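Private note to self, pasted from the team thread so I don't lose it. C-alpha cells:
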C-alpha cells in the first residue's frame, strides 16, 4: 500500500497532475516512440495513437489508481487492473518493459510540470507507479501461465480458410492452425489479437472477438 509519507504528497498533487494529464500523455507517447520506435512494430496500435482519447488511457489510469489509493487505501481497484492486465497479456507485454514505460512517464511528468516536481513529489509518484506496475506484472504472469505461454510465445501463425461476409460491416474469418499446438476452447467474451504485416514491413495489432474455438 501507499506509504504514509507519500499519501499526503499524492493527495496534494493529484489535482495538478489531473489538470495536465492530456499534455503528460502526449509528451509520454512522443518520448516513448522516439526512444523505443520498435514499440510501434506489433505492440501499440497506430490507429489508437491517432485518437487522443486512447492516448489518455495509460497516464489516466495511473491517476485513477492514485485517486483510489488515496480515497480507499485498503482496497486496490481490481476491475481497472484486471482489464488492463487482460489487454497487456493479449499483446505479449513483458515485465522488463515496465521500466521503459516508467522512465518515459516520469520524464513526461517532469517535463510538463517543470520545477513544481520536487524530489519528494517525484518519489511519491514513483511509488504509485511501481505499486501499480508490480500488481499488473503479477496478474499478467498468472494469465500467461494459465494459458501455458510466455510473453514471447503468445504469437502463432494461422491460415485463413474462409471469409464469410455476415453483414455489410461484419466479417467472420475461419482460420485453421498450421502448427502442432492445441487450441484451448474459447471463453465467453474472449478476444484475440491479430498482427498483420503492413506494406512498410512493420506489424499492426488489431483485436477481434472470437465466436468459436475448437481443439
Ligand atoms: C503501470 C504501468 C502501466 C499502466 C498503468 C498501463 C495502463 C494501460 C491502460 C489503461 C491501457 C488501456 C486498456 C484498455 O484499452 O482496456 C493500456 C493499454 C496498453 N498498454 Fe499499458 N500500462 C502500463 C504498462 C505498459 C507497458 C510496460 C507496456 C509495454 C510497452 C504497455 C503497453 C500497452 C499497449 C500496447 C496497450 C494497448 C494500446 C493500444 O490500443 O494500442 N503498457 N495500458
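Design output:
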Amino acid at each position: 500500500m501507499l506509504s504514509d509519507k507519500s499519501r499526503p504528497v499524492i493527495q496534494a498533487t493529484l489535482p495538478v497532475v489531473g489538470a495536465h494529464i492530456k499534455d503528460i500523455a502526449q509528451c509520454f507517447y512522443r518520448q516513448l516512440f522516439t526512444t523505443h520506435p520498435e514499440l510501434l512494430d506489433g505492440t501499440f496500435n497506430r490507429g489508437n495513437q491517432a485518437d487522443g482519447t486512447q492516448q489518455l488511457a495509460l497516464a489516466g489510469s495511473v491517476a485513477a489508481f492514485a485517486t483510489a489509493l488515496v480515497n480507499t487505501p485498503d482496497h486496490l481497484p481490481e476491475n481497472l487492473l484486471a482489464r488492463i492486465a487482460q489487454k497487456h497479456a493479449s499483446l505479449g507485454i513483458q515485465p522488463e518493459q515496465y521500466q521503459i514505460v516508467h522512465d518515459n512517464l516520469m520524464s513526461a511528468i517532469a517535463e510538463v510540470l517543470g520545477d513544481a516536481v520536487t524530489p519528494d513529489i517525484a518519489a511519491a509518484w514513483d511509488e504509485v507507479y511501481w505499486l501499480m506496475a508490480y500488481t499488473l506484472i503479477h496478474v499478467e504472469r498468472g494469465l500467461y501461465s494459465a494459458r501455458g505461454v510466455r510473453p514471447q510465445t503468445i504469437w502463432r501463425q494461422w491460415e485463413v480458410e474462409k471469409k464469410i461476409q455476415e453483414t455489410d460491416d461484419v466479417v467472420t474469418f475461419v482460420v485453421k492452425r498450421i502448427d502442432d499446438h492445441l487450441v484451448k476452447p474459447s471463453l465467453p467474451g474472449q478476444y484475440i489479437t491479430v498482427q498483420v504485416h503492413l506494406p512498410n514491413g512493420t506489424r499492426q495489432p488489431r483485436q477481434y472477438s472470437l465466436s468459436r474455438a475448437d481443439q
